[in-house]
Amino acid sequence: MIVGFLSWSIPLQVIFNGLTLGLGYSVIAAGIVLIHRSSGIVNFAQAAIGAFGVATFVVLFQNASLPYPLAALLGVAGAVVLGVATELLVVRRLFESSRVVLLIATVGVAQLVALAILEALRNVKGGPIPVAFGARWAELHVSKSLVIGTRQTSLIILVVPVLVGLGWFLTRTRLGLHIRAVADSPENARLVGVSPRRVSTLVWALAAAFAAYTQIAVAPIVTRTASELAGVSSIGLLLRALVVAMAARMRSIPVVVASGLALGVVESVVSVNLNTDVGVFNAFLFAGVILMVLLLARAGSRRDVAFSVGVRRAAVPEKLQSIWWIRRFSTIAMAALLGVLALVPLLASQPSQLLTWTELILIAMVAISLSLLTGWAGQLSLGQFAFAGVGGLSMLAFTRAQPLGLGLPFVGHIATLRFQMPWGLALVASTAMGVLFAVVVGLPALRVKGLFLAVTTLAFGYMASSWMFGRTFWSGGQFSVPSATSERPSFRGLSFASPSAYYYLCLGFLAATVIVVSRLRRSGSGRTMIAVRDNEAMTAASTVSPMMAKLSAFAVSGGIAAMAGSLYVFLLPGFTASGAQSPFSPDASLRVVAIAIIGGIGTVVGGILGALWVIGLPALFGASDTVQLLSANVGLLFLLLYFPGGLVQVLYRVRDSVFRRLAGRHVDAVPADEPAATLTVRPRATAPPEAGQPWLATQAVGVTFGGVRAVDDVSVEVGAGELVGLIGTNGAGKSTLMDAISGFVPHTGTISVLGTDVSGMRAHQRHAIGLGRGFQDAALFGSLTVRETVLVALEARRRSLLVPSMLGLPPSHKWERTKRSEADEILTFLGLGPSSDTFVLDLSTGTRRAVELACLVATDAKVLLLDEPTGGITQREAEAFAPLIRQVKQDLGASVVMIEHDMPLVMSVCDRVYCLEAGRVIAHGTPRDVGADPAVIASYLGTDERAIARSNQADPFEGRPVAPAASSGFGGP
Amino acid sequence: MPARPSVAIVAAVLLVSGCASAAKNTTTQAPTAASKTGTFASDVTIGADGRLVAPKCTGTDAPASSDGVAAASVNVASLAVNFASLAKIGFSAAGHEPPAVYAGFVKALNAKGGVCGRQIDVQQISYDILKNEGGKACVQGTQDRKNLIINTASYDQITCLTDAGVPAYSASDLTKGDLARSKGLLFSRSPLVEQQYAATVEYAKKVGALKGKVGVWYGNTFPNLGNAVEQVVLPMLKKDGVNFKAYRTDATGPSDPDGNAVLTSAATDLVARKVDTMLMFVGPTNYTGMQSELHAQHLDPRYISAPVAGNSSNELFAKGFGTQSYTDGQTFVTYTVGPNELGPSNPIAKSCNDQWTKLTGETVKPNTFDYALITSDCVQVDELAAALSLAGGNLTRERIVQALAALPSHGAPPDVGPLHWTPTGRTAAPEFSVQIYHGKTNTVTTEKQTFTVAG
Q1: Which of A149, A470, A576 lies closest to B297 in CB terms?
Q2: DSSP of A96-142, one letter per residue?
């Protein structure tokens, strides 16, 4: 192929056709970008809403015989109504939910709209999309080799100006400014009188109008007839639009247009020249997506929002924790659910019924794998069933010795390998294939959050089912893969050939998956996955590599999906490996996402509940249209609207209600915590620097953001045991300097921590040296409890091992017990014992700051970077902070760098102070010296005499006894 | 999201009823020597109305239940895509579902005492192809209960059925590879795909359509059909030195972005070449998509197509996709007649539909899709009855296969030629005609003259 590329035919007409093809993609992408900019939502229904407008237009024009312009106008109006209705009834209700819930909601809307289109067009007189305007433009013969057809002329004249206008609108009009304002910060926009809700509705109306208008113009190019309109919701078209939107980073309309045109040209050229290699363009598309991710993506900032999800399960009330069946309620409930599933073969007598139920079990496994990846690690995969396909088709390749041809570019074929493995070994190998593919697919995109990974996995799934699975190794060279039901395993005389035996085998694997994944959740590896989702920077500050945590999630998820796929291929009576009929199609992947959401993503039981709803309900109640609607489109939307946490949310509410009532009847006394007298200080893992050497030193550090020099040639030093303050106006570069020290932003200059040059190290590596970080927002990990948060920090002492944790192998149990004990000690020391099981999200700012301190203790940090530690806390808590930080510093033997605006605090606790302005150090020295420095006074303190007097006050806390932690003012929600 | 159907699959499925009868079919045929295989004691004859007449049963042995056979009953299945579900995607469904029609005729048979003392129990399996329910349908037919034989035209399921060892009859559009894989268990109502394609090229050559510039548009969501073009058609064209350019699409249609890109590029190139004739070996949506694209680029070549969906509904597609006005005169090489051509003038069709009226009280309008569906299913039940009678009391899957292969040559509307399965031949004879489409009236006419190609 590579050599042949040089002889490709690239006629001008083909390029032009590609441009018009790409224009069609740009149109849909522009609508997606418009909505994403205003609300952060990826609207999978964008094309469908536009198609609805076209369908309305067709019905009015062809059936009602309205004039073309009137019918087109009403078509656009119809789309606007649908868009606004979607925003008001679906998006607005779900706005506080996670982005992945909203994404799936738009998938549900797209499905319903497609059905509505088909229904509306059922009685249409038929025929092609009318192109009345097209007839007025003459065909343009530009040259012998280039003719611009009337439809293309129509497209260019009608669509290009609107695209240009859209870009102008977003950047030059007041409404466009409002849209961008709301996109950046809805809260701030509200403060200046811009209503985010009104803007959102306007944007959806605008996007719908744009989609309908342009699709009425584009439809004759992209679709041929009215009956094909429903196909605009095809995943292939959506994928192309998403890729184009991604190339523009979901921001720039001009880049959307340019990217769409480029994509169309490439597709057109490839289609002409590689015509007989079916689906090969999708391989190009996937490769392009990977390249784009590598080139365009940048690491997300702390402020980027991942696809966070979650319905949280409240802790068991303390009063009831001694009751064993309450403590183990979840385990008992899960066992009961599996027990009910075990009864199915007794009730479902027909093999075809068992086929459905076995399929349900295996899909539940894939849904659980997705729950782990998306629900815990916040990485949205839209190609999960492709990993199942990798596993399944590998399994057949390994058991049937299908040929694997190996070759190199320019060299050609080298060898053909065949593997003939027994069933068990093949299962392990195919699972490993799933892990490998998941890691390879996920690796480029894991540097960034959100949409990039989702589109990458969607592109992978599309490429796999349309092209890759058609290769000989995967398909065995046959379009229709022969049934493998007769190749089911047997073990020590026990055959799993019969439908019921195979059902039980699969149920066993589901149970094993539940156990393993549940173990993972309770382990450090599981906690770090959730931590990375909630707060990647904090995770790195806890010495955990966010990249490794995400990769672990991807690997485990891919492995489970592949295992499910390996079992799946022995269930099917025969199937097509690739193409639209493949069981591993992108549709199947989207279905699994919907199943996981319906059940409750982020939970293990959710995958099973979702599968029961979507597959089990129709199996139980027959194939009536009502059941089909409830278990799919309508049911999906209904659940999402009222129970965005999924079915499990309903169960949790019932459970919590029952527990509350039971707790009300229990009056057992709970013994009060005894505060620990001291904290066990662990020896430092890193050797201390030589005496006299600074524990933290920055030398000519600089940070630049897009031409702005945020930190300019800053050199600071912090000695052993020192407490150094960083003061300055907002925007002086204090937090940026801390970020540079932590490794969260690239910088010039050198930084050393405890005598080690960390300039080239990643964030988590720096923190492993002995750096500790407290953040301005103290966000911590909202989905974790206080204890779990400290346990994440304790990974610094003892890193959890992934596989032993999942399988319950030593030393995972012992290490977990040790870490729990250490966590409790730290929490008690800081007076946080009563809050141990409280979710961080439910804590006050002050208590979160204390938890943050606990994390610093847990990481045995020796150089603490605290960013406005008293920000957002009460006066009482602020007053208690000074003695607390002194105590922690003393007990840990640490040095501290503190950014603060509370001048009395700074003056009272700091040994030295640096003052920054415009990224440079303008003064440094003792607090008194700095407070009296004229430059500091002019820049930061102001010229008011009272301010100057306050800044030079003696320590207001001097002479006061240090209060025990329990009564420090911290330690409660 | 619902899976977009392969229109080719749908089109193939539409063959399940076949369509109108052969306008030129003879009224009676004498039993042929094929039935005198020595394996069976009786002969199957042809009645005055052209229908198969089941012989007397021989042998009263009733083996232990096996392969769906019991002393007093025999299990068969009728498996087909649910037409009502196809309505969702704009395909006008017939008013009847094939399994129900099949079961209706079987009911009549049972009312007369069944065959060889056995009642025929029909398992009706109707599945929604849009929801990928084919696999489950196959399991229903092969595992939920044992069936002696399955009547189906679902191309997507024939592999599954025969892999399970169940004979299937009335399949359509099989390749040599499909037949080889089926190990003799498949019986097709159509000539081999390779023969259909060869016939198309032969016809085009015969009418001089290959003298100028030729475009070839081929492919199918079942890649083996596209492969057959590469194995048969392209070598034929090369051998004859035809000036041609071929493009392949395995997409479902132009609404699929993959399909749209290929179609647009191919059309552009073909317009640039100013092709005189288009040879079409694609499904209906790709077929009409190419026509509309070429027309939009001001090229209206001559269209000669291989049989599309058994030519059972070419006019429906033309109307549905709006190509009527500029495809007048397009020709389809065909092995069946169009639905609008099958009426009471065909004795088999008349007899079958009269019987249906007696059975159900319903009179189906002649020269319609449903009229053809009823005719075809009726013939297939006749075949079953004849084969069951031939096989006699000792009824196994092997015996029913032998019996079907021993049936005499008989009229099988909508096929233009007779259907004759043999121990070595499982497809219809490669006898073809040409169907001409009339845009103004949206009807088709099948030429009376037929031709054959080498087997």
Answers
A1: A149
A2: TS-HHHHHHHHHHHHHHHHHHHHHHHTTS---BPP-TGGGGSPPEEE
- Residue A811, preceding bond cis, omega within 30 degrees? yes
Q: Alpha-carbon distance A506 to A566, whole Å?
A: 10
pLDDT in tens, B396-454: 899 999 999 999 999 999 888 889 998 888 999 888 999 999 988 888 888 888 888 87
Identify whether the C-beta of residue A849 lies closer than 8 Å to the C-beta of residue A873.
Answer: yes
Q: Is A688 exposed, middle or buried (0-12, 13-18, 19+ CB in 10 A)?
A: middle
For A575, the closest of B87, B135, B221 (CB atoms) is: B135
Question: Which residue, among A813, A343, A330, has the nearest Cα to A604 in the 3D structure?
Answer: A330
B245 touches chain A (CB under 8 A): no
8 Å CB contact between A540 and A865 = no
Contact of A590 with chain B, judged by CB distance below 8 Å, is answered with: yes
DSSP class of residue A225 equals B
Pairing of strands B213-218, B277-281: parallel
ipTM of the complex: 0.84
Decide: helix, strand or coil at residue A197.
helix
Residues B219 and B78 in one domain: no
Q: Which domain holds residue B291?
A: 193-339+434-452
Instruction: Give the Cα separation of A21 and A152 in Å (integer).
Output: 10
Identify the helix (H) or strand (E) that includes residue B289: helix B284-296
B292 lies in some domain: yes
User: Least CA distance to B294: which residue of chain A?
Assistant: A149
Determine the pLDDT at residue A669. 52
Are residues B226 and B247 located together in one domain of the fold?
Answer: yes
Residues A806 and A801: their CA atoms lie apart, in Å, by 9
Place of tokens 């320590």: A955
Q: Which of residues 244-273 of A touch B (CB under 8 A)?
A: 267-268, 271-272
Q: Contact at 8 Å (CB) between B99 and B80?
A: yes
Contact at CB, B268 and A581, closer than 8 angstroms: no
- Any chain A CB within 8 A of the CB of B178? no
Domain map (residue ranges) of chain A: 4-276, 329-404+412-657, 696-960
The answer to whether B383 contacts chain A (CB < 8 Å) is: no
Cβ contact A231–B255 (<8 Å): yes
Split into its structural domains, chain B has a count of 2
B135·A275 Cβ contact <8 A: no
Give the Cα separation of B372 and B366 in Å (integer): 8
Query: Which CATH entry fits the domain spanning A696-960: 3.90.25.10, 3.40.50.300, 3.30.390.30, 3.40.50.2300?
Result: 3.40.50.300
- pLDDT tens, residue by residue, A332-356: 999 999 999 999 999 987 899 999 9
Q: In chain A, what residues touch B265 (CB-CB under 8 Å)?
A: 14, 17, 268, 271-272
Task: State whether B406 and B439 are in the same domain.
Answer: no
pLDDT tens-digit profile of A51-65?
A: 899 888 888 887 888
8 Å CB contact of B164 and A126? no
